[in-house]
């Protein structure tokens, strides 16, 4: 199977405060997440203008607009992490959440999910129901299955079936792939093949790994990150694992030169993929735009303009993770 045109994939880890409730004091982050909520419709509008097919891997808890609705979709088996502070359910019990999205826009986002599903070319995927950590001590495979079932029930409120998954904190766990497939997932985002993207735990991760991931956004430390579509294997009974290429890192006003380098590097890698008929898979969290939304959106505009050039010059295609998995399964 070949794709001579090249493929551009965007996947987004949509999580708001659920992405770091155990480490982000909400009082310090409220404006950050309000900015994030404001920028998501702008992002969707930009995707519409450039005909971008994107996968929004959302935390299932965000799919709700009321605590009552959320509680009804709780799983039968909750994660039994050795580090109890990693559990979203412990957070709800200990710190509390609001009763509605209007009261608590940091833990409910049903109105934003509705905008996503109403925007052309957008795929609603999953970041698990409760930001589930698949490599943490104490949790089990069956607890993960229960979490995915809760995520699927949450998507049913929008008439959707979740088919693409991104593991929270990029804790990719091959042992969990069969359960993903059994619960309806056909596409999973895999990590880049570099040693510094091997993430086994959120607890006391090596600073050296994190430093190398950061530096690689500007200077090449890792392997070539574009790849032929036919290099992605399809194994019946398992989801298609689609490697990420690059994390779009947040804008930082103190790093004007590095911000420019970061965008230029993404554009260059994308052009290489288009020219060679390969895949370029870019990802980020919408909240990465929360500190400096205007500057972050300007950077995204530059990236999508670069994609427009690749589409015009080389015929590059924008595809969701689910669309890529379908093509691989049909032709692989």
Question: Describe it for me?
Answer:
The chain is an alpha/beta fold and 332 residues long. The protein has one domain: Glycoside hydrolase/deacetylase (TIM Barrel, Alpha-Beta Barrel). It has ten helices and ten strands. The protein has helices at residues 26-49, 67-72, 88-95, 110-118, 141-156, 177-182, 207-215, 256-276, 293-314, 321-331; strands at residues 7-14, 54-58, 122-126, 164-165, 187-190, 227-228, 240-243, 246-247, 278-284, 317-319. Strands 1, 2, 3, 6, 8, 9 and 10 form a seven-stranded mixed beta sheet that branches. It has a three-stranded parallel beta sheet with strand order 4-5-7. Strand 4 (164-165), helix 6 (177-182) and strand 5 form a beta-alpha-beta unit. Helix 1 runs parallel beside helix 9 (293-314) and helix 8 (256-276) packs parallel to helix 9 (293-314). The longest helix has 24 residues, at 26-49. The model has no long low-confidence stretch (mean pLDDT 91).
Secondary-structure map:
Blueprint: E1 7-14, H1 26-49, E2 54-58, H2 67-72, H3 88-95, H4 110-118, E3 122-126, H5 141-156, E4 164-165, H6 177-182, E5 187-190, H7 207-215, E6 227-228, E7 240-243, E8 246-247, H8 256-276, E9 278-284, H9 293-314, E10 317-319, H10 321-331
Parallel strand pairs: 1-2, 1-9, 1-10, 2-3, 4-5, 5-7, 8-9
Antiparallel strand pairs: 6-9
Question: What is the end-to-end distance?
Answer: 6 Å
Query: How much helicity do the residues have?
Result: 25-40%
Mean pLDDT: 91
Tally of DSSP β-strands: 10
CATH topology: TIM Barrel
| Range of strand content | 5-15%
CATH homolog superfamily: Glycoside hydrolase/deacetylase
Overall tally of structural domains:
1
Helix and strand run: EHEHHHEHEHEHEEEHEHEH
Task: Using the CA coordinates, give the radius of gyration.
Answer: 19 Å
Name of the top-level CATH class: Alpha Beta
Q: What does the overall shape look like?
A: globular
CATH architecture call: Alpha-Beta Barrel
Helix vs. strand class: alpha/beta
Main beta-sheet annotation: 7 strands, mixed
Helix segment count?
10
Low-pLDDT stretches: none
């Amino acid at each position: 199977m070949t794709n001579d045109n090249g493929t551009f994939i965007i996947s987004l880890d949509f999580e708001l405060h659920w992405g770091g409730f155990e480490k982000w004091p909400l009082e310090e982050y409220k404006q950050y997440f309000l900015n994030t909520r404001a920028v998501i419709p702008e992002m969707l509008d930009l995707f519409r203008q450039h005909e971008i097919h994107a996968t929004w891997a959302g935390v299932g808890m965000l799919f709700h607009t009321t605590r009552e609705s959320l509680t009804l979709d709780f799983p039968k088996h909750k994660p039994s992490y050795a580090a109890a502070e990693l559990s979203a359910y412990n957070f709800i019990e200990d710190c509390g959440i609001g009763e509605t999205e209007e009261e608590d826009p940091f833990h409910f986002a049903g109105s934003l999910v509705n905008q996503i599903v109403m925007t052309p070319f957008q795929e609603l995927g999953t970041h698990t129901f409760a930001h589930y950590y698949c490599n943490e001590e104490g949790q089990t495979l069956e607890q993960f299955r229960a979490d995915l079932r809760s995520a699927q029930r949450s998507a049913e409120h929008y008439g959707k079936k979740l088919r693409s998954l991104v593991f929270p904190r990029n804790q990719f766990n091959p042992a969990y792939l069969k359960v993903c497939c059994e619960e309806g997932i056909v596409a999973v985002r895999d990590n880049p093949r570099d040693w510094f993207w091997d993430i086994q735990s959120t607890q006391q991760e090596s600073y050296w790994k994190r430093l190398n991931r950061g530096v690689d956004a500007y200077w090449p430390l890792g392997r070539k990150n574009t790849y032929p579509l036919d290099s992605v294997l399809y194994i019946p009974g398992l989801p298609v694992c689609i490697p990420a290429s690059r994390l779009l890192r947040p804008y930082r006003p103190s790093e004007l030169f590095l911000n420019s380098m970061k965008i230029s590097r993404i554009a260059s890698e994308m052009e290489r993929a288009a020219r060679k008929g390969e895949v370029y898979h870019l990802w980020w969290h919408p909240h990465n735009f929360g500190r400096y939304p205007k500057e972050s959106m300007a950077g995204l505009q530059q990236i999508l303009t670069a994609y427009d050039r690749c589409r015009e010059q080389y015929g590059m295609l924008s595809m969701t993770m689910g669309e890529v998995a379908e093509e691989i399964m049909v032709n692989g």
